[in-house]
Amino acid sequence: MAVTIKTNMKYPPRPYILAETNWKAVQATKFEVAVLPWGATEAHNYQLPYATDNYQNEAITEAAAKLAWERGAKVVVLPNIPFGVQTGQLDIPLCMNILPSTQLAILKDICDVLVRAGIPKLVIFNGHGGNDFKTMVRELSFHYPQLFTCALNWFKVENKSGYFTHLDGDHADEMETSIMLEILPNLVLPLDEAGMVLIKNGSSRRCGKAGLAPNGNGRKFQKTPALAIHTNLPLKKGSATWMP
Ligand SMILES: [Zn+2]
Q: Fewest CB within 10 angstroms: 90, 127, 149, 213, which?
């Protein structure tokens, strides 16, 4: 009996997303630039999922690559790397730390693949504040002079003050909450779940800032009256932040 394979052409493979495209299409395309999204898996206060940085990376790079492709650029987005540097949050369970030296080793292997494929440019698209690729780009350029390599932090590309009211957070803040409400609202808990982090020296900061504290500094998560900062977050500004 013949087997019927159903296809759904409502969502055909996008030729600029490596995970979706195929060997035949890749063989026929002379890619000019590869984009490598690099995120993190870490606590994002209480209201956002651990993979927030990865979800954001994927949504933004896919939207940007679509625009570029439609204008004729031969761009390919590589699968997002989901683990980042978490050395400042080792006390928080399942913040999935990998060290900068590991990142450099991974990047060297990826550069090697790109050079063999004849792709001349690599953009490391960073979505996590703990990742820092600046010196790695210098080292990669030393090892692979034929490959133009650069890195960007998408969350610093645009001035947030044009979009958001609460500008002192750097993580699980108004911007990240708003973007997640735009792309995956089902994964965002009510904002009254969010709170402050207390650090031993008496200061209190929003969750992400506390992430900069040294490991074992007596971090404690506590709901405080200042929670109103979070509950007042204006919502649904995510698309204005990064969508064309
Ligand atoms: Zn984040």
A: 90
